[in-house]
Request: fold
Amino acid sequence: MTYPIHFAPLQGYTEDAYRRTHHALFGGVAQYYTPFVRLEHGTVRTKDLRDLRPEYNEGVPVVPQVIANGGEEMEQVVAVVKDRGYRRIDINAGCPFPLQTRHGRGAALTASPERMEQIASVVRRHTDVAFSLKMRLGMESADEWRQVMPVVNAMPLVHVTVHPRVAKQQYKGELHLSQFEALLSCSSHPVIYNGEVHGLSDLQSLEKTYGDRLSGVMVGRGLLAQPWLAAEYASGAKWPAAERLRLLRALHTELLAHYERLIPGEAQRLQKVRTLWDYLEPTLGRKQWKRLMKAGNMKNYLAAVADLRLSTAPQADF
Ligand SMILES: Cc1cc2nc3c(=O)[nH]c(=O)nc-3n(C[C@H](O)[C@H](O)[C@H](O)COP(=O)(O)O)c2cc1C
Reply:
């Protein structure tokens, strides 16, 4: 069995230009999720609205993600997203950052059946939208999900994505797989697994462990590190290093052209385009990666990009 691969939302990385270009060049991804759309001082940030522009997302299977702390915020963000023509929304119940959780948003929803119920009633009101939920196991302890599960199970959802950590771990440390297994057994919705998938062998081991009990796998940092991962998994064949490098360069060229239109200052443009490599150190090897990250101006940086070489060696998995 081959799982559909979902590209995780990654604030600062999987923005419109990245999603569109990744889809055009690499493919293999069933759905791309936007970084969460939030309310700030009662309105949605211009940056988030730009990311949702329908003309930028046309032809790309995009799911806008929203974050809200209860019924009122949820109504507002859902209205903004629907206004832009979307009828598919993912709800963030996983963000671990205190900036969100201390206001009751993100992972804090896993510790509050009351707030989750408010979210659920908004979901039930918008019968023309297909909702999904992305959650963690809890805030502090890995069995907290149990208290919200009855509410989650009663919500009409297309699926639930689970990152088997608690908020205080952020994105590191032990994956609580026995709690994940328990949640999988309790869920009345299809479940998508998310966390620390870095290569084909991780996907194969999920297949072996869970088989068709999972409806798909969501991959975040692993896809940033190896943008070809989903396509190779779908096709069942590893691509030659030269092909991976050709597409990686094409991704870079497109993103740079996009930022040239968007960001006038060279220093800021360099800072933004360089984020493409943030998670690529294991793929490129330390030396090449450092040269990209340390280049002090655009000229030196572009020379480092031009000199890039890929071998299949640095990734033990491939
Ligand atoms: C830099 C960064 C930004 C993230 N932004 C979001 C976000 O906007 N919404 C969300 O639900 N999760 C967000 N996440 C969590 C990822 O979607 C994902 O759940 C997490 O990275 C674990 O998956 P992975 O091990 O495949 O990366 C973010 C994670 C990182 C590292």
